[in-house]
Amino acid sequence: MRSAGGPPAVPPAAGRRPSRVERAAAEPAAEQPARPPALREELIDVLTPTGEQTGIRKPKNEIHRDGDWHRAAHIWIIATDGRFLLQRRSLRKENNPGLWDVSAAGHLSAGESATEAAVRETFEELGLKLSPDDLEFVQTLPQVSILNGNTYFDNEFHEIFIVRRDIDVASLNLDLDEVAEVKWVSDLRPDDTFVPHGEEYDLVSRFSR
What we know:
By secondary structure, the chain is α+β, with helices and mostly antiparallel strands. Helix content is 16%, strand content 32%. The strands form three sheets. The protein has a four-stranded mixed beta sheet with strand order 6-3-8-7. The chain has a three-stranded antiparallel beta sheet with strand order 5-4-9, with no helix packed on it. A two-stranded antiparallel ribbon has the order 1-2.
């Protein structure tokens, strides 16, 4: 993978909103009311191996403990000159910390559409506001991963979207709990510094022009 001649990767200290941990530490204790237990964990819809709803919803940790099939939105931002925006995952992440990855991504919450999740995750991770009309759906790809010493089973349908936009990376407002830095690259050449996404990299590379 080679970087294009665009702006360099954004240093984690500049142009960032504080991480969730830092924001919580900076707020007075009186301004941090306890959240109801029901809201502490995001619920995710459990799917069949062919992608149908089962009617079951579970917290994320149980989804990955049990190896349940579920969906995630993957958003690839591509500049008008064909470059791809990559994010490097935060070292605080449970899985694949510090590896380069899709521009933005995240699980679909229970009852949420893939488009809604794509808009939400892009804003949460990058501070970039999108509308549903900005999203070009590409394809659904299943992926099976076993991580963390065979304790984390990720059976996931990736709902892949393309967003075509030129972005000044210095203007992005990264959530440091999720994203360490971002950068533009001229083409996708995944190696051992990338999250393994198999055929997704080949699929998305076709949209560079």
